[in-house]
Amino acid sequence: FVSGSRSSKTFKPKKNIPEGSHQYELLKHAEATLGSGNLRQAVMLPEGEDLNEWIAVNTVDFFNQINMLYGTITEFCTEASCPVMSAGPRYEYHWADGTNIKKPIKCSAPKYIDYLMTWVQDQLDDETLFPSKIGVPFPKNFMSVAKTILKRLFRVYAHIYHQHFDSVMRLQEEAHLNTSFKHFIFFVQEFNLIDRRELAPLQELIEKLGSKDR
Fold this sequence. Notes:
Elements: H1 22-35, H2 39-42, H3 51-71, E1 85-86, E2 92-93, H4 109-125, H5 142-170, H6 174-190, H7 203-211
Antiparallel strand pairs: 1-2
Helix pairs in contact: 1-3, 3-5, 3-6, 4-5, 5-6
């Protein structure tokens, strides 16, 4: 995989949940309830299921969705068009992963999102963090890792909405983006996974999406 081949529709390789595994069954359950159109219901923890496992399956799914959504607009998100990673004039994000880059660095949006998606993929591929085998327990810090991943994935939605929504409209993808984002927001709200302050760049949109479902 070469990060130079950015024209492909998926920005990073898709993370697959192994078929036949319990997580695969959970993913199928999630897809089936999503099909019913009731997103509030679709995000709820299925009866008798493990919360960590449910959050893990959905985190992988959101990673794949955002990957594909961002993949469709990479040609519009360039060093020139987006020299900083922002979500409107009031919010700017600097990258740090705590290991390779300890001190937050200012970088362009495509660079930031590249760092972010590579970092998320590494977390998802780490069997000690996201065990795919049945019976392997989740680590004690799983919830804090999942929260960090989701908080960072939110920033990609925020950047797309603030800086590239006109491109999304031209590509006639706004319905797809809105549904994906609404699903994401209902999920993080259901389990209180992202601090309200972090959601501020899209607060109005979040309220609008929520009010339609009450």
